[in-house]
Amino acid sequence: MTETDRKRLHVITWGCQMNVYDSGRMADVLAPLGYAPAAEPDGADMVILNTCHIRDKAAEKVFSELGRLRRMKEATGNCMILAVAGCVAQAEGAEILARAPYVDIVLGPQTYHRLPEMVARASRAGNKVIETDFPPEDKFDHLPESATPQGVTAFLTIQEGCDKFCSFCVVPYTRGAEQSRSAATILREARHLTAQGAREITLLGQNVNAWHGEAPDGTTWGLGRLLRELADVPGLLRLRYATSHPRDMDDDLIAAHRDVPTLMPFLHLPIQSGSDRMLAAMNRKHTADDYRRIIDRLGDARPDLALSTDFIVGHPGETEADFEATMTLVRDVTFALAYSFKYSPRPGTPAAGAPAQVAEADKDRRLQALQALLREQQTEFAAGCVGLDLPVLFTGPGRHPGQIAGRSPFLHPVHVSGSADLIGTESIVRIVANYPNSLAGTLVQERRIA
Ligand code: 5AD
Ligand code: SF4
After folding, report:
1. Same domain, 71 and 176
2. Rounded to 5 degrees, what are φ and ψ at 306?
3. Residue 249, domain CATH
């Protein structure tokens, strides 16, 4: 490739871990065309805005960012190719080109393997490209192996889409129906990631524990079996998966938490509400007690398992009593980490049209009360780690010279004094202090498992 063929690509990523993964894969698809990563959008030959539609004023945020990118595009003499990808692109489609005619490409999450062809079409002056259909072919069959290592910790999408149709959620509409990749392609990608230096892999899916993929022998495996197979991938020290639905925590998956030591004792299992009335209104298809029973069984399988979850406050119809049921559930279960959100109406979802919308002030008050309780529990959990010897996977340099940073089994960032050659290995660290968003420790034993 000559200097003149080299082009600079900047990808802006909003939203979930799957978008982070997708952004990496979009860069992989464009690499053979000469696109190399650019740290800034200014002066880039192509900018992709990979968007999220899950909450808030998603579309408004996109148009305001596009306004900023428009000026940068004009500064390049309009040579910059501007693409909008992800879930807002999927949901808004042609509306994006109508409101921002300087955008060249609008593409949904299922079509980015076709980016080279879209770029070729968009490069012909004046051409606009919209690709938001769900194509018949599987994009994963058309993506090249990633040439750019993700690092010590890596994401691997194994499942996409969702058939659950929770009342509030836009995902089944933007990401489409549930689809599982085959076990063989997942195992191949995992081996490729570890060969590139990954030591921890997080399996991703909108409903990751609904994964049921074709096995090499033609049968169908569930996630429990896949985790057992992945545990044998050379070089892999840690496995995680996110995000799960309580309905899909089957017996074999729970048993995998007992049997697979590389599966980290930390699980993100959204519940959304502690009120059965709200769970029914949300179409979650489980009760608060179902959830409690599942985590009891998980705790029996893996006694050191810590939990993380998601909550929505102010879903249509939520009363003070419903909210109190959520607070009670939090007090009973206790979470090491949790994300909580005010209900945000998503166009086209059943809850958006429900009559009993909750007043903004009530949502605010409930969110504050819930977050205060969750913060307390999060701090208490981190404080409980002080004095423990925990395995820490070192992922990179620390903030200060002579420091390295890693991750606890429970996803806390951990800082210790240590040599940079420990990066990519797991060592035992005595935790000596907890800070609001991290832990500090000292090396006890360099296991140097690489
Ligand atoms: N409003 C607020 N929160 C939402 N989530 C999904 N849709 C909405 C919405 N419309 C939250 C849920 C989900 C997390 C990814 O985002 O808690 O688990
Ligand atoms: Fe959305 Fe998750 Fe419900 Fe699927 S299971 S509809 S992704 S909240």
Report:
1. no
2. -110, 150
3. 3.30.750.210
Q: What is the CATH number of the domain that holds 19?
A: 3.40.50.12160
* Entry pTM: 0.94
3-class secondary-structure state, position 111: coil
Is position 146 within any domain? no
Residues with CB under 6 A from ligand 2: 162, 164-166, 169, 171-172, 206-207, 245
Ligand closest to the CA atom of residue 318? 1
Q: Is the CB of 17 under 6 A from ligand 1?
A: no
How far apart (Å, rounded) are the C-alpha atoms in residues 89 and 59?
9
Rg (CA), the chain: 23
Q: Of the ligands numbered here, which is closest to the C-alpha atom of 269?
A: 1
Could you give the number of structural domains in the chain?
4
Residue located nearest, by CA, to atom 17 of ligand 1:
310
Say yes or no: CB of residue 394 within 6 Å of ligand 1: no
Contact 366, 374 (CB under 8 A): no
Which pLDDT tens digits describe the chain residue by residue (450 residues)?
555 578 999 999 999 999 999 999 999 999 999 999 999 999 899 999 999 999 888 888 999 999 999 999 999 888 999 999 999 999 999 999 999 999 999 999 999 999 999 999 998 877 999 999 888 888 888 888 888 889 999 999 999 999 999 999 999 999 999 999 999 999 999 999 999 999 999 999 999 999 999 999 999 999 999 999 999 999 999 999 999 999 999 999 999 999 999 999 999 999 999 999 999 999 999 999 999 999 999 999 999 999 999 999 999 999 999 999 999 999 999 999 999 999 999 999 999 999 999 999 999 999 999 999 999 999 999 999 999 999 999 999 998 999 999 999 999 999 999 999 999 999 999 999 999 999 999 999 776 665
Asked if the structure places residue 136 within a domain, the reply is no
Cα–Cα distance for residue pair 177/100, rounded to 1 Å: 29
Question: Which secondary structure element, helix H or strand E, spans residue 393, and what is its range?
Answer: strand 389-397
Containing structural domain, residue 335: 267-384
The shares of helix, strand and coil residues in the chain, as percent rounded to the nearest 5, are 40, 25, 35
The domain spanning residue 344 has which CATH number?
3.30.750.200
Ligand 2 atom closest to residue 243's alpha carbon, by position in its atom list: 2
Atom of ligand 1 nearest to the CA of 16: 15
- As a whole number of angstroms, the distance between CA 236 and CA 262 comes to 8
- Ligand minimally distant from the alpha carbon of residue 167: 2
